[in-house]
Amino acid sequence: MMGKKILMLVGDYAEDYETMVPFQALQMLGYQVDAVCPDKAKGDYIMTAIHDFDGAQTYSEKPGHRFILNADFAPVKEQDYDALLIPGGRAPEYLRLNDRVLKLVQEFNAAYKPIAAVCHGPQLLAAAGVLKGRTCSAYPACAPEVRLSGGHYAEIGIDQAYVDGNLVTAPAWPAHPQWLAKFVEVLQQ
């Protein structure tokens, strides 16, 4: 376990818990977690958003924290990392428009390295074309994208996680205990 490096792809309005909790919890376990964002450098920050369930038909969004990036995106190479982590929120929606981000996701998948994605994170997996024939969970509003990309959508509880080979996915932050535990299990294989 010790010495393993995880690349975390984040962007503005990534979900606050889905950014902060994995970043801190995985470091607590001894992993090196490099949080990067395209067109931003180490020491820059992203704004996070707090998504909550307040009784409306969809989640609400409130301002989150300034999350400081601890690594540069520009020099990132898949071969320098053991795994990839993709938080949810609104960031995946625009990050999937970046060709280099999509190429990184494809490279991690081609190398069959562990990939953890939560909530809207699977939007990046769908856009990168790595879900064909695979099963993954995501926030329910992303189910059509999973299916349209040739994947199978796992309908599981909001506090559950799903593993399909190297993919560890979950619907939202209430799944953190299962999602992170299953990700660590896959990382240790």
TrEMBL record:
InterPro entries: C56_PfpI-like, Class_I_gatase-like, DJ-1/PfpI. GO terms for molecular function: peptidase activity. Keywords: Hydrolase, Protease. It holds the Pfam family DJ-1_PfpI. GO terms for biological process: proteolysis. PROSITE patterns: PEPTIDASE_C56_PFPI. CDD domains: GATase1_PfpI_1. Residues 4-185 form the DJ-1/PfpI domain. The keyword Transferase does not apply. PANTHER family: DJ-1 PROTEIN, DJ-1_THIJ_PFPI FAMILY PROTEIN. Belongs to the peptidase C56 family. This is Intracellular protease, PfpI family.
